[in-house]
UniProtKB/TrEMBL annotation, chain A:
Keywords: Ribonucleoprotein, Ribosomal protein. It comes from Sistotremastrum niveocremeum HHB9708. Residues 145-156 have a biased composition (Polar residues). Pfam families: Ribosomal_S13. One of its GO terms (biological process) is translation. InterPro entries: Rbsml_uS13_C, Ribosomal_uS13, Ribosomal_uS13-like_H2TH. Residues 79-99, 142-165 are annotated as: Disordered. This is Mitochondrial 30S ribosomal protein S13. One of its GO terms (molecular function) is structural constituent of ribosome. Belongs to the universal ribosomal protein uS13 family. GO terms for cellular component: mitochondrion; small ribosomal subunit.
Automatic annotation (TrEMBL), chain B:
PROSITE patterns: RIBOSOMAL_S19. It comes from the Eukaryota. Coiled coil: none annotated. Pfam families: Ribosomal_S19. Keywords: Ribonucleoprotein, Ribosomal protein. This is Ribosomal protein S19/S15. SUPFAM superfamilies: Ribosomal protein S19 (SSF54570). Belongs to the universal ribosomal protein uS19 family. One of its GO terms (molecular function) is RNA binding.
Length: 165, 73
C-alpha cells in the first residue's frame, strides 16, 4: 500500500491502472505517464523502486513544472541494468525545453484539488455572467440540451453550483 | 473567425446609453460591445442584456432564455 499525494494505491494492481484512481487521470493519461517514466505496462506497484515512487509523486504534485528528461533510446532485450544507480542524464538545453513543452500533452495536466477548483470556477463564471449554462447548473438540470421528460437523473445528482465529482 | 453582426448604431449606443434591439442571438460578443445594453429577442419579447468584460466570447442568445420555467399545478 503506497500513499501518493494522499491517494492510497494497492500493491497488487498494475501501475497504469492504479494511477487512474486520481481525480483527473484516466486510462490514456495514465499510459502516457507510465511511458514518460519508463515503467512497463505489466509492472505492479509493489515492484516500483522508492526513487520511481518519489519521482512519480513529484511529477503529479505539479506536472507543469517538472524538469523534462531527454528521450533516451530503448534498451535491447539482453540489457542488464547496472547494480549502482547511473548518473543523472544531462538536462535539456533551454530552446529544446520550450519546443518540447509546446507539444507536450502532459504539461497542462491538472489533478485532484486543482481540477476541482477549475471546474468550480468555470461554473461560477457562467453563473456570474448569467448565461444559460449557469442557469441550468443552478436548477440542477442537464446543461447540454438533453431530454428532461425522462432520464435526467445524473444531472439532478451532479449539476449544482458547488458541483461535486 | 467568429460569427458576428455589424451594428450600425454601436457608437451612439455606447455614448448615449441607448439599448440596441436585435434578433441576432447567434452574434458573438466582441470586446467593442462591452458596456452596451442590448434587447435580445427570445421569440416573443426583447430581454435586456448589459454586456460586461466576462461575456466577451459568448453569444447574445445565451443571456436571453427562450422557455418559461416548467411549473406543475
Amino acid at each position: 500500500m503506497v500513499h501518493i499525494l494522499g491517494v492510497l494505491l494497492r500493491d497488487n494492481s498494475f501501475v497504469k491502472i492504479a494511477l487512474t484512481r486520481f481525480y483527473g487521470i484516466g486510462y490514456p493519461t495514465a499510459e502516457r505517464i507510465c511511458a514518460r517514466f519508463q515503467i512497463h505496462d505489466r509492472c505492479k506497484i509493489k515492484s516500483l523502486t522508492p526513487s520511481q515512487i518519489t519521482s512519480l509523486a513529484s511529477f503529479l504534485a505539479s506536472p507543469s513544472t517538472t524538469p523534462l528528461m531527454p528521450i533516451l533510446p530503448l534498451a535491447s532485450p539482453d540489457y542488464e541494468p547496472p547494480k549502482s544507480t547511473p548518473p543523472m542524464p544531462q538536462m535539456l538545453k533551454r530552446d529544446e525545453v520550450s519546443e518540447r513543452r509546446k507539444r507536450d500533452p502532459l504539461v497542462g495536466l491538472k489533478i485532484e484539488t486543482e481540477l476541482r477548483r477549475q471546474i468550480r470556477e468555470n461554473i461560477a463564471h457562467h453563473r456570474m455572467i448569467g448565461s444559460y449554462v449557469g442557469r441550468r447548473h443552478a436548477m440542477g438540470m442537464p446543461v447540454r440540451g438533453q431530454n428532461t421528460r425522462n432520464n435526467a437523473q445524473n444531472a439532478r445528482k451532479f449539476n449544482k453550483i458547488e458541483r461535486r465529482g | 473567425g467568429p460569427y458576428f453582426v455589424a451594428f450600425p448604431n454601436l457608437r451612439e449606443a455606447l455614448q448615449n446609453n441607448l439599448p440596441i434591439q436585435t434578433q441576432a442571438r447567434a452574434c458573438t460578443i466582441l470586446p467593442s460591445f462591452v458596456g452596451i445594453r442590448f434587447m435580445v429577442h427570445n421569440g416573443k419579447s426583447y430581454l435586456p442584456v448589459t454586456v460586461t468584460q466576462d461575456m466577451v466570447g459568448h453569444k447574445l442568445g445565451e443571456f436571453a432564455p427562450t422557455r418559461k420555467r416548467f411549473t406543475y399545478k
